[in-house]
Amino acid sequence: MLFLARMDVHFPESMTQEVMADYQAREKAYSGDLQSRGIMKAIWRVVGEYANYSIFDVNDHDELHSILGGFPMFKYMDVKITPLAKHPNALEYYLFD
Amino acid sequence: MLFLARMDVHFPESMTQEVMADYQAREKAYSGDLQSRGIMKAIWRVVGEYANYSIFDVNDHDELHSILGGFPMFKYMDVKITPLAKHPNALEYYLFD
Amino acid sequence: MLFLARMDVHFPESMTQEVMADYQAREKAYSGDLQSRGIMKAIWRVVGEYANYSIFDVNDHDELHSILGGFPMFKYMDVKITPLAKHPNALEYYLFD
Amino acid sequence: MLFLARMDVHFPESMTQEVMADYQAREKAYSGDLQSRGIMKAIWRVVGEYANYSIFDVNDHDELHSILGGFPMFKYMDVKITPLAKHPNALEYYLFD
Amino acid sequence: MLFLARMDVHFPESMTQEVMADYQAREKAYSGDLQSRGIMKAIWRVVGEYANYSIFDVNDHDELHSILGGFPMFKYMDVKITPLAKHPNALEYYLFD
Amino acid sequence: MLFLARMDVHFPESMTQEVMADYQAREKAYSGDLQSRGIMKAIWRVVGEYANYSIFDVNDHDELHSILGGFPMFKYMDVKITPLAKHPNALEYYLFD
Amino acid sequence: MLFLARMDVHFPESMTQEVMADYQAREKAYSGDLQSRGIMKAIWRVVGEYANYSIFDVNDHDELHSILGGFPMFKYMDVKITPLAKHPNALEYYLFD
Amino acid sequence: MLFLARMDVHFPESMTQEVMADYQAREKAYSGDLQSRGIMKAIWRVVGEYANYSIFDVNDHDELHSILGGFPMFKYMDVKITPLAKHPNALEYYLFD
Amino acid sequence: MLFLARMDVHFPESMTQEVMADYQAREKAYSGDLQSRGIMKAIWRVVGEYANYSIFDVNDHDELHSILGGFPMFKYMDVKITPLAKHPNALEYYLFD
Amino acid sequence: MLFLARMDVHFPESMTQEVMADYQAREKAYSGDLQSRGIMKAIWRVVGEYANYSIFDVNDHDELHSILGGFPMFKYMDVKITPLAKHPNALEYYLFD
């Protein structure tokens, strides 16, 4: 099943550059792994914002919550998800296996 | 360039089933053509709503507005677009040629 | 998978009492069938509003959209769905088979 | 009487992991007790968010406020409740004794 | 149990003065009866708006929804209710028997 | 003149239990005095929230602002007031002397 | 007592120019009378909108609601009022007798 | 030219009473000077809130921004301005020289 | 003085293509004249919406309201204006004479 | 391609005047450079707010995000961008080369 996610990141003012860089490195590794495994089918930057839109393909809600909750920066993210279905006008079921 | 679009459709109560079906048929043909030409890279149904999320890949804003304004149902749609850029954690530039 | 849905109904002023009663009768039959089949696990009235909260248990998003779109009053409803997962503090996975 | 509650948790940045874990352990015990006693009839995780939807069955508003205010994490929660009634299309009065 | 209700009235433009007056007369009778029976404990006009705040004392949610749905003008009203409990600083449980 | 007030309290995370208890004790005394003097005609807890709805009967706006600004917890409260008038369907002018 | 009011006017599409002009003429007369009598202390146009901000000086809420409800265009207006008090930094109590 | 301004003040929790009193004293002097010079034509307290509505008469936008930015408490204020024009129903151009 | 305006157009469903085309032709002429006279300094289409952002340079608020109110499609437009001042980082006062 | 950007700045209370001044100096240099290079075509102050509206002319979204992310004060800014196209009523394509 496909989900569109929007994630907005808000780091606290008190976070040091080193801690922030560490979070970002772990986030990148985690995100890359999800992409390699075909769970995160796409991710884009929202222009001008510390935010992304991404597409997830998972088997159920418990798996999705576990994946989202596992993001290293999860506690600093506002996440909103939207369930997606096949569109009647779509030539194919995009990004869906 | 990539854009995420959300389109919500609101038909007037007075529209007959025949007129509605005609709009939907023309919309489907127009949408299919955009997909075939690689302009609309993806489209999904928002579950439970008469709405879609779609991804457009266009050369500039004038082309995008012309394409959106050309939808047969444009006058009955609320359209909101979000410019997308490559995400630093993305393994590839998804849906972008 | 479980989804919480909120549905708000807005009938047009021009609808006659007979047409409205017919919609409501067909809605009731459709809703009852979904409940009997274990797809709609629960439905409650929002006090003071022509609206409900309901719980759906479906296999995927396409099934859910098809079910929601099949409601006789779908064109008069605003539907918002929220994916639900098992809560870590829950003694059981409520309303989920 | 039934109430739908949505609770969103916001811990302060300064809270240590130990304090947080202690809050969560006490919350789990409190929640489990409410479920065992038939007061909290259901609880689910909102996918992607540190939030839940839950169903309460109480005798009156004073009891409900006392129960909600007794959550160990109450001061870190935004709670919104919605009174629920029996829906005319419901085959039974779900989660209500 | 006490509930605060806010009701906003929106009549359609096409309604004649006679129909409107008839609705208002029946509304007044219905409201007066609820007050006489101690169900509607208070009602005030929101200054400058076709709206009221009112206080209801009912036994349960099904009774309250039945009462609200019985207002002659219910289909033209937006109703929002807020459950009220005894305040710890209150010298008495106001408007509650 | 009658006003409906909604007050939401937000204490800072850094406030100690002792300071908080002191604020609450002074608030209770202040609130009790206003009730005894017939200025605060009613106060209820909003179920599930650190908030109240209350009814004030004052002579003018300067008196009301002075009273509200005098609450010991005023700097931690969001206050919204709504002027109330007699409702044409009211059997009496509730809570108004 | 002083109140700031914002009034937004929304005429239905079906209203003829003649009816609209008649409403506007009666509104102007009514407004002029309120100004002459010192009840409406000021009125300004919100630039770019069919709306005004105005200041009323009345004795109580019932008088204010009666005055606002008496506007010929009241049924086409959204009215929001804000009670005003003397500001501690004000050199005088502006527009207040 | 006239502008309606609404200013909401939010002081940080860490500010001492002395610093706050100093800000307020300087604010009062600054505000009084603007009133004496006919630039701030009026100011009122919003009842129940640490906020004001005020009327400014300035020659242009650069002057207005300079004046607003010069408020001692500017960094703690949310300011929203609304341009005002003469209303066609106004007997005079209120507060405008 | 400069103002940023956003205008959203909403035509009623009942308007014929001929009437719409006539409105649009008159709008174009009116808009072109404002541009030629240096009053409307710029106008752009909001991509995907029947809306524009535009920049006006006028002498005062009464002139601006008169100009905006004179748009042939004014009654079908939602207009929101934002006063602009010279930015301290600007190399010049853009679009300002 | 043209984009309208609105940027709102929120500095933390703990920032010293020296750090703030340094940010502002670097921001001014960065902004000036973008203007000199024809990338930022215009920038204005929003009257009464620590915010700007600005116009960017860039080749694609990745360039724009890189430019916006490069602002020295980016982490303290909320940025919202709106893609702009040529308006059919425009006499020229304003601020576009």
Automatic annotation (TrEMBL), chains A, B, C, D, E, F, G, H, I, J:
This is Muconolactone Delta-isomerase. Keywords: Aromatic hydrocarbons catabolism, Isomerase. Homodecamer. Residues 1-89 form the Muconolactone isomerase domain. It catalyses: (S)-muconolactone = (4,5-dihydro-5-oxofuran-2-yl)-acetate. Its EC number is 5.3.3.4. Pfam families: MIase. It comes from Corynebacterium efficiens (strain DSM 44549 / YS-314 / AJ 12310 / JCM 11189 / NBRC 100395). Belongs to the muconolactone Delta-isomerase family. Pathway: Aromatic compound metabolism; beta-ketoadipate pathway; 5-oxo-4,5-dihydro-2-furylacetate from catechol: step 3/3. It is an enzyme of class 5 (isomerase). GO terms for molecular function: muconolactone delta-isomerase activity. One of its GO terms (biological process) is beta-ketoadipate pathway.
